[in-house]
């Protein structure tokens, strides 16, 4: 998906998105017209002792912190991480198509409702002072019944592989989503409504 | 918003979308690669004696029927209509910027939650037989608090005017949407999950 971009908010300082996700990039364009993307190579292994909320905050923080430490001067670094959770089981990005199929099968069976958790860390250095925001957002997604043939067709588009839970509701897969409860952009991968509030509070975007 | 289009489902017969909405066009592209757009010029005045559900079904039907009657041979005509309802008051497309501002102000005040109703009519003629589907979908949207300055800024983008309720959550306005309950695409303007089911049931798209 590509958004038509319009310069909307005037940006006063350098903004860095610490993510390679094209979805996060498009969402950030909703509120800022110019920013850099620097991708962190940190270890994204989950810590089994943590809750889903703690996992996504931790990983968003590791990503943001890594890029913050590698850059200088006045800047805002935005890190984010998304996981899918159903019946206590955590789903990250699938390692192969077999695993991707299995993920969709499990998410589309039983009660067919799962949670999406997205963590958000924003680190701001302005006039020598450092501020750090750590938060998360949860949204619920309910799938329709999906046949094996439909799952295969989706997996064959090649779009399942780099997404937590092996799906993206903004792609063709969207027809299999019955309903959501919560913030849509949190599900896509970046709670842009929260990013907006933090940047506004810090006068990084001018209203 | 523009989607990257990939041919996904093979289409067997002519499909006509009876709507000028670029959002509906993009959503239909999620499931069919080729279709015509023919815009109906029918009177879209609301009938005050009807419920919101009846309004959107009626208008989606008038639009689809008009185009169906003007075309021949095997075809599928898709008509849709969207309204916003809060505290019993119906919000269609604003007539001017003053009305657009007023709409957002009202939707963002009080409980800040409103309903979006989208009606859907699909008329299919195949092998001389005519089938008609009429349905609707409802979703709830909760706004954040929005300042007058932020409302002005949104209205000044010029994107408020052709939308029911004077907003589009897939545009910059998306940062003011706290949460939704229901189907995202119903809010955008076309319950594509329902279109998919009807076209699948009629083997118009091949899985």
The profile of the biggest β sheet of chain A is: 7 strands, mixed
Q: What's the CATH class of chain A, please?
A: Alpha Beta
Oligomer: homodimer
CATH architecture classification of chain A: Alpha-Beta Complex
Strand content of chain A: 25-35%
Distance between the termini of chain A: 27 Å
Separate helix tally of chain A:
6
Main attributes?
homodimer, 207 residues, alpha+beta, Maf protein, seven-stranded mixed β-sheet, two-stranded antiparallel sheet, 9 strands, 29% strand
Topology of this protein?
Two copies of one chain form a homodimer.
Chain A: E1 10-11, E2 14-17, H1 22-28, E3 36-37, H2 52-69, E4 75-86, E5 89-91, H3 97-107, E6 113-126, E7 129-143, H4 148-156, E8 177-182, H5 184-188, H6 192-201, E9 205-206
Parallel strand pairs in A: 2-3, 2-4
Antiparallel strand pairs in A: 1-9, 4-5, 4-6, 6-7, 7-8
Helix pairs in contact in A: 3-4
Describe this structure as you would to a colleague.
2 copies of one chain form a homodimer. Chain A has 207 residues and is of the alpha+beta class. Chain A has a single domain (13-206), classed as Maf protein (Alpha-Beta Complex), CATH 3.90.950.10. Helices cover 29% and strands 29% of the residues of chain A. Chain A contains 6 helices and 9 strands; from the N terminus they run E-E-H-E-H-E-E-H-E-E-H-E-H-H-E. Chain A has helices at residues 22-28, 52-69, 97-107, 148-156, 184-188, 192-201, and strands at residues 10-11, 14-17, 36-37, 75-86, 89-91, 113-126, 129-143, 177-182, 205-206. In chain A, the strands form 2 sheets. In chain A, strands 2, 3, 4, 5, 6, 7 and 8 form a 7-stranded mixed beta sheet that branches. Chain A has a two-stranded antiparallel sheet with strand order 1-9. In chain A, helix 3 (97-107) packs across helix 4. Chain A is elongated, with a radius of gyration of 17 Å. In chain A, 45% of the residues are buried. Strand 8 of chain A pairs antiparallel with strand 8 (177-182) of chain B, so a sheet runs across the interface.
């Amino acid at each position: 998906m590509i958004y038509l971009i319009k310069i909307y908010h005037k940006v006063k300082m350098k903004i860095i998105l610490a993510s390679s996700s094209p979805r996060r990039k498009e969402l950030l364009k909703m509120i800022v017209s110019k920013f850099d993307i620097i991708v962190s190579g940190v270890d994204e292994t989950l810590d089994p002792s943590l809750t889903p909320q703690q996992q996504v905050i931790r990983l968003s923080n590791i990503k943001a912190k890594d890029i913050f430490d590698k850059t200088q001067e006045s800047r805002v670094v935005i890190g984010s991480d998304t996981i899918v959770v159903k019946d206590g089981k955590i789903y990250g990005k699938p390692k192969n198509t077999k695993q991707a199929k299995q993920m969709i099968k499990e998410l589309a069976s039983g009660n067919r409702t799962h949670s999406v958790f997205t963590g958000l860390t924003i680190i701001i250095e302005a006039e020598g002072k450092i501020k750090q925001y750590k938060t998360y957002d949860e949204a619920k997604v309910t799938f329709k019944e999906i046949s094996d043939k439909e799952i295969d067709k989706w997996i064959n588009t090649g779009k399942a592989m780099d997404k937590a839970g092996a799906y993206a509701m903004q792609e063709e897969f969207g027809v299999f989503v019955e309903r959501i409860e919560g913030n849509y952009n949190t599900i896509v991968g970046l709670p842009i409504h929260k990013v907006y509030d933090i940047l506004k509070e810090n006068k990084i975007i001018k209203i």
